[in-house]
Amino acid sequence: MNTLCWFFTAPLLIAALSLWLRIERRLPWIAAGLMVAQLPLVAWLCLPVFSHSAPVTTDFGLDGVGAAFLLITTLVASASLIQAALLLPAERAQDEAITARHLRQFYLLAGLFLAAMYAVLLAHNLGYLWIAMEATTLISAPLVFYHRTRHALEATWKYLLLCSVGIAFALFGTVLLVAAQHTAGGSSTLHFGALLKHAASFDPRLLRLAFIFCLLGYGTKAGLFPLHNWLPDAHSEAPAPASAMLSGALLNCALVAIWRLSQVMHAAGQDGLVRELLVPAGAIAVLAAGLMLVRQHDLKRMWAYSSVEHVGLLTLAIGIGATPLFILHALNHSLVKVALFLLAGGIIHRYGSKALKQVNGLLRSAPAWGVLLAAAGFAIAGSPPFGTFLSEWLLLRDTFGAGHPLAAVLVMAGLTVTFVAIAVHVGRILFGHAPQEHRTLPAPVWSVVPAALLLLALATGLALAPPVMTMLTHLAAIGGLR
Amino acid sequence: MTISYIEILSAGVACCAVWMCGVTGITPLLRLLAAQTALIAVITALLGARLHEPHYFWLAAVVLCVKAIAIPAYLSWAAGRLHIRRDIGTVLNPMVTLLIGGGTQTAGYFLAPRVAVLPLGNVGAAGMALVLLFIGMLLMLTRRLALSQIIGFLVLENGIFLYGLTQTHGMPLMVEMGVVFDVLVGVMVAGLVIFRLNRSFEHIDVTQLRGLRH
Question: How far apart are CA A282 and CA A463, in angstroms?
């Protein structure tokens, strides 16, 4: 039996168990336990990739970048599902619009959603990659609608439609990629390894067109400015654990697709176009997201716009061909952003509102959470000693080094604005008058997962010794060319 | 210059799409969509006969059953349940849209050689596929009804399918089937969301959905 099937055990088991009525009450904890058990399993399955690198010849396979993102995705999912086991039943107790059926649906969709994301990361055939990516949209759209409110419905519709159209462009790009091979004559393939091997002989005109359409498509899915319109709505209306998975795992999947395409372009000797498109797009996204962050009134929308910013940074990393940095920053961003969304879920549950105006005095009313939120806010804004600081700093250095001073300056401006905006917003949450009437205080156990994630982010910041970078470079070399 | 049957049929497909620009009634829109997709199924079968590849016939059958019959039938059932007869109004006048659509078809004819895969010899079809892409976008942007936006999306998707069919001859069968399946599920999910929209807002006018603009 194919070892790759093992990746899908926990997600599909969660989906299957959610249909079994008799374990309804214990379902959240069973799902969380399964996902935590999945973590060592994925690590064990990915381990061979670190030692020896056989090129992938099948439609689904494991390469260095895929393995790194599989680990990140599993980590994000297990953190989200543990917090979901705490948050969702507590929410249900307060909101009678959410029934047991909705909760079961959440787990069914979450399991399938994870399976689809694994498929995206394992796919080495760009056709299957597209199918899995579209599946993630279709499965996660109902997740956004979990709260059954009008706003959630509007966000769901926007998400479904914009991402479907976006991803249709990626399909056109994929078709063009096949067409580019026909002009050159010979057989056509969509297999990543074969594409890398033969890319030099493709018709450059159609290949460039293919890359542009794929970038438009997967860029929409990744929330790349100015195609990010759906992202703040979907990420802010979804329940906190789903937001964490959308932000910490799904955006990465779309970026991995762009990375694969950029590798094909690199093999075809079309690096110029990749750089011309991705470097300005990334830099502008960082600055634009920073400016949009200034005028935010909603806790979760704020973190959603911060995701737009980090997608810009990651796009820039792909653009300058710094794959190790792409992996490192994706890891850092996922760790901190998941911690933030999970914290936001708890805060919103406590205050009963998402509006920044009504969330004040956190430091006085719940000091542990206040400290965590402050730390996470600093981390997402890229301050030392967190991992985000290191990866952003290395990225800036490499952007200058690659000869894009203008992009680097734009990014620096964007990061500065972001820092100020986040500091002001988080400051308002932490200080000021706490409202008189509180809902019941959530147990301290709610802060364990965000705290653990932040510790990990701290560790990536402190432990970035040369061996880690060497390992990442090695990992990047297994799949692609650089 | 000889024009193949496939190119003539592709032009027919594009004409259906241009016609759709000027139509606001849901039933005629869905009939045109079904006719357009059925023509694409015929093209698929013709290509299969020309290339002696049996799997094209399977693909043609699936396209006919799923995209030309099941999806329009589902959407017309949904329209019936929602009591929708016609689009409540368009952002652009339908006649103007029709003119733009016609202009696009002309432009597609001239653009064709630039995007076509010349060795395969279906140059005209590539242009017509572009016309479908553009008109799909146009319908999505100018129609106010959520249902018409889905129809626009399907036209867009047909354009991609037509391009892939006539210009590559070789998208793997599994990939094509997966795409058709994804589209089917997508339409189902979108239909469910439309029912929800209608229940919560008592309309499905997307220009009125602006609760989330901050």
Answer: 27
Nearest CA among A203, A210, A246 for reference residue A228 = A246
SS3 category, A134: helix
**Ranges of residues in chain B whose predicted pLDDT is under 50:** 1
Q: Number of helices and strands (H, E) in chain A?
A: 20, 0
Highest mean pLDDT out of A373-377, A390-394, A455-459: A373-377
Measured between CA atoms, the residue of chain A closest to residue B196 is A153
Question: CB distance from B69 to chain A under 8 Å?
Answer: no
Q: Is A175 close to B119, i.e. CB distance below 8 A?
A: no
Q: For the whole model, what pTM was predicted?
A: 0.91
Q: How far apart are CA A232 and CA A229, in angstroms?
A: 7
**Complex-level ipTM:** 0.90
| A356: number of Cβ within 10 Å | 17
Phi, psi of A59 (to 5 degrees): -70, -30
- Which residue in chain B has the smallest CA separation from A177? B168
Given a contact cutoff of 8 angstroms between Cβ atoms, the answer to whether A76 and A336 are in contact is no
Comparing A422 with A470, the larger pLDDT belongs to A422
User: Each residue of A259-294: pLDDT tens digit?
Assistant: 999 999 998 888 889 999 999 999 999 999 999 999
| A chain contacts of residue B197, beta-carbon cutoff 8 Å | 153, 157
Query: Do the Cβ atoms of A386 and A482 come closer than 8 Å?
Result: no
Residues comprising chain A, all counted: 482
The whole-number pLDDT of residue A184 equals 64
- Residue A433: burial class (beta carbons within 10 Å; 0-12, 13-18, 19+): exposed
Kindly report the backbone phi and psi dihedral angles of residue A96, in degrees, each rounded to the nearest multiple of 5, phi listed first. -80, -5
Nearest-by-Cβ selection for A190 from B175, B206, B212: B175
Residue type for position B175: V
Most B CBs within 10 A among A113, A137, A148, A172, hence the mutation to make, goes to A172
A380: pLDDT strictly greater than 80: yes
